[in-house]
Design a protein that fits this description.
This protein has 654 residues and is mainly beta. The chain has six helices and 44 strands. The strands form ten sheets. Strands 18, 19, 20, 21, 22, 26, 27 and 28 form an eight-stranded mixed beta sheet that branches. The radius of gyration is 30 Å and the shape is globular.
């Protein structure tokens, strides 16, 4: 920095905080104090030989379902064992689970990679891992997990397929998953284990056995396969609509008496526009008579001049997660600490397509609200029949009235499958903050009173951000994890203790990221560092942000910051005085309590005291708290009385 060549007295000083008119002069100083988005963190990871599809964590062991292999890792992500699941030799004359090696040289035999479509944990009958692959009609295998050696999933493996009787090939309960996409939810009720399955099906995809669009099947007590309890235990898209009306099942979860699926599909048989739906039916409803669908919209509204409001709809769900809120968010949403909240990352799609664009939003809705909305809309008769399942001219779609209590889950005589026409809308939690990026992953955990979201992007960036309905927040963690997209498959473990972590998948790589954050090095200014969420345990150590144990040299503090001056403009001025100077820098007047008072501020340059006059109303706790106090002061002389007087000199320039 060049020295100021004139030190006039009695000069009026103007104070600015992140105003547009000061950006031109202090733009470089602002860049110097921004969060470092290029920082590299050394985190535990493991790289597989083939792409990863699914991850399960059980008794301190990580089970990874990948193409042709299942890996078993310890919590440090060190490989313990590998079980080979493919490639598999397939021949039309070979039944699932049958050894076809003697047909290897036949012209109609083909080796196929086995993509892991579902990896599930079942502990009612045995501690066992259930793996369902893309080969052999989508059947599953169960791997017994031995208590004394959880890494051994090879010594006891059973095929979950029973030979079909003549005439039953069209009704194969053991054919579970679709290679086009599937979501499987396992529940245990009344001493039975049920599998709820949503499959993407098309007319061009013709497996050797029929796969149903959505179904419920029971695990046999012999555990050698599954059974449908009735001929109504599944629903199928009509063959004529399977190509024009594809359904992608994104997420599934259970809550109290209901099972929920989240899907992406067209708005109607006649529409080219895609949207997101919530599917709900009773857990004990083996005939799926209580099946209902409802649109779910994540919107962003922006007030404009002349009181007009612009509304954007983020129509395509990319990933979802269900968890309980922290105390602050629960209070803001009028919920209890034991209420479940559904969080989703949504994207805007290309016109008449389900392909997402780089525009995203994050929305949240309590499961209680979902159920209340279902019940209220059904009472108002805002619904119609499911034309993609029945057809427009079906008896279920003509002059039909619905009178049943939608919240009732006991035995019913009438079929109640319907589509709600009124969408459940929620507003973007982060008010357009992610409108230039494609979010692909979300998981949520709590720390103290806070609720924190882990977000992943299509470009492999990992972020953490506090969720709040009353205050604006920005990511306190943002770093490039990988060049591959972050998968929706995320595991959160030990979220309430200090050593909690995420397991995050990117392509062939799985990475362990502490819930407390990977570190503090990405905070470049002291004020950013001290305003990080308390659970990150960041503090200022000389000229860097670090945790206390990492601060070997210098004093570690979480209370106050010294000002950092980057530049004074102009660098010269007339001797007669009257010049307004601009001091560019950051951490001016910052302390942990985040209070700034003009009466406590005095400016000195060259031993002269200068008058100070605020020209901005931007100084308040919230402004500092959420936009990081990198501040620009239009001044002639500068110091601060409390807690101590600061004088501008070359020593402060950074």
């Amino acid at each position: 920095m060049k020295p100021v060549t004139a030190y006039p007295s009695g000069i009026i000083i103007f104070l600015f905080a992140l105003l547009q008119r000061s950006h031109g002069q202090c733009k470089e100083a602002a860049k110097k104090s921004e969060m470092n988005l290029s920082v590299k963190y050394d985190l535990p990871s493991f790289i597989t030989e083939t792409p990863i599809q699914n991850v399960v964590l059980y008794k301190h062991h990580v089970y990874i379902g990948a193409v042709n292999k299942i890996y078993v890792l310890n919590e440090a992500l060190q490989n313990i064992s590998v079980y080979k699941t493919g490639p598999i030799l397939e021949n039309p004359d070979c039944a699932p689970c049958e050894d076809c090696k003697d047909k290897a040289n036949l012209s109609n035999s083909v080796w196929k990679d086995n993509v892991n479509m579902a990896l599930l944990l079942e502990t009612y009958y045995d501690d066992q891992l259930i793996s369902c692959g893309s080969v052999a009609g989508g059947i599953c295998h169960r791997h017994i997990i031995h208590p004394d050696n959880p890494a051994d999933i090879e010594s006891e493996v059973h095929c979950m397929y029973s030979t079909q009787m003549d005439g039953e090939a069209d009704n194969c309960p053991d054919c579970v998953v679709s290679t086009l996409g599937t979501k499987v939810l396992v529940t245990e009720k009344d001493r039975f284990v049920n599998f709820f399955v949503g499959n993407t099906v098309t007319s061009t995809f013709q497996p050797p056995y029929v796969l149903h669009s959505i179904s419920v099947r029971r695990l046999k007590e012999t555990q050698d396969g599954f059974e449908f309890l009735t001929d109504q235990s599944y629903i199928d898209i009509l063959p004529q609509f399977r190509d024009s009306y594809p359904i992608r099942y994104v997420h599934a979860f259970e809550n109290n008496h209901f099972v929920y699926f989240l899907t992406v599909q067209r708005e109607s048989l006649d529409s080219q526009t895609f949207h997101t739906r919530i599917i709900r039916f009773c857990t004990l409803d083996s005939g799926m008579r209580s099946y209902m669908e409802m649109p779910l919209e994540c919107i962003f509204t922006e007030k404009r001049r002349k009181r007009s409001i612009r509304k954007e709809v983020f129509n395509i769900l990319q990933a979802a997660y269900v968890s309980k809120p922290g105390a602050a968010l629960a209070h803001e949403m009028g919920l209890g600490l034991n209420d479940d909240i559904l969080y989703g990352v949504f994207a805007q799609s290309k016109p008449d397509s389900s392909e997402p664009t780089n525009r995203s939003a994050v929305c949240a809705v309590s499961v209680r609200t979902i159920n209340e909305f279902f019940n209220k809309i059904v009472d108002k008769q805002n619904m119609k029949c499911l034309q993609h399942f029945y057809g427009k001219d079906s008896k279920y779609c003509l002059n039909r009235a619905f009178s049943r209590n939608a919240s009732y889950c006991r035995a019913q005589d009438d079929e109640y499958r319907l589509e709600v026409t009124t969408p459940l809308q929620r507003v973007d939690l982060f008010m357009g903050q992610f409108n230039n990026v494609l979010l692909t992953s979300i998981s949520v955990f709590t720390k103290g009173n806070l609720t924190i979201a882990n977000l992943g992007t299509s470009e492999g960036r990992f972020m953490q951000i506090v969720i709040s309905r009353s205050e604006s927040t920005a990511p306190h963690v943002s770093f490039q994890l990988d060049s591959h997209p972050i998968s929706p498959q995320v595991v959160v473990e030990h979220s309430l203790v200090a050593d909690g972590y995420n397991l995050v998948v990117t392509g062939k790589k799985i990475t362990k990221i502490p819930l407390n954050g990977p570190g503090c090095e990405h905070f470049k200014s002291c004020s950013q560092c001290l305003l990080a969420p308390p659970f990150m345990q960041c503090g200022w150590c000389s000229k860097r942000c670090a945790r206390s144990q990492e601060c070997v040299e210098g004093t570690w503090t979480q209370e106050t910051c010294l000002p950092r001056v980057y530049e004074i403009l102009p660098s010269s001025a007339p001797l007669e005085g009257g010049t307004k100077l601009t001091v560019c820098g950051w951490d001016f007047g910052f302390s942990k309590n985040n209070r700034f008072e003009l009466k406590n501020t005095v400016v000195h340059i060259g031993g002269q005291t200068c008058a100070l006059e605020a020209k901005s109303k931007s100084y308040n706790n919230k402004y500092f708290s959420h936009l990081w106090p990198q501040v620009w002061w239009n001044i002639t002389n500068f110091s601060r009385k409390i807690p101590k007087q600061w004088k501008i000199s070359k020593d402060f320039c950074g």
